[in-house]
Amino acid sequence: MLTLHRVRGVRLAHDGELNAGHAVVVDGARIAAIGPYEELLAAHGGARVREWDGVLTPGRYEPDGAALLEAAYHPDPREADELGGAPLTGEALAALGMTEARWGASARRGLQRLLAAGTTALTGPFIRPAVRTAVQRSGLVELPGPAPRALATGGPAHFAVFGEDGTCLATVLAGRLVHRRR
Fold first, then answer.
1. Quick one: which of 9, 3, 4 has its CA closest to 162?
2. Cα–Cα distance between 13 and 58 in angstroms, integer?
3. Most buried among 14, 61, 78, 124, using CB within 10 Å?
């Protein structure tokens, strides 16, 4: 299914110029076209249109992915009264008596936070099996280190949309909407 993402503008690279009035067409897991919205709408009139009041970019890269997911516990909201809502590290983490199942649940909550921040790639390696599985299932791209990422026709549909205030409005991985700000 074709999806046309209408935004205020598109940045093909994080440090690239803003292409105001441009949009992105996604076909499955790939970017089918990038260009002026009106031209894309005329060429892909049957596409589902998603409108975002923001700028579409390649998404954030998280260089500390392994530390955020394997050296911190992301509490369940049901544990907020006891543990608070912020990730736990150091002595507080050591006192929890972590199991593989608890690491997996923590990693999934940590990944949700990363997706909500517009993260589309992160650095591993991930040693804990439950964390590694959670990362693989999330669809986030695991990179060995910072690599230039850019949006291109025919390339993977991994991107994020950010509002004027810098908050992430949406995160898309392999053409799938995996986060939408409510």
1. 9
2. 6
3. 61
CB 20 within 8 A of CB 57: no
Which of 138, 144, 126 lies closest to 71 in space, CA to CA? 126
Model's pTM, two decimal places? Answer: 0.92
Query: What pLDDT, on a 0 to 100 scale, did the predictor assign at position 49?
Result: 97
Amino acid at 82: E
Low-confidence ranges of the chain (pLDDT < 50): none
Tell me how many degrees the CA angle 113-135-74 measures, rounded to the nearest 5.
Answer: 40
Domains assigned to the chain: 2-59+149-180 (2.30.40.10), 61-143 (no CATH)
| Numbers of helices and strands, H then E, in the chain | 6, 13
- With residue 4 as reference, give the H or E element that holds it: strand 2-6
Residue 38's pLDDT is 97
Residue range 118-159, pLDDT digits in tens: 999 999 999 999 999 999 999 998 988 777 689 999 999 999
d(C-alpha 47, C-alpha 24), whole Å: 11
3-state class (DSSP) for residue 133: helix
Alpha-carbon span 170 to 23, nearest angstrom: 14
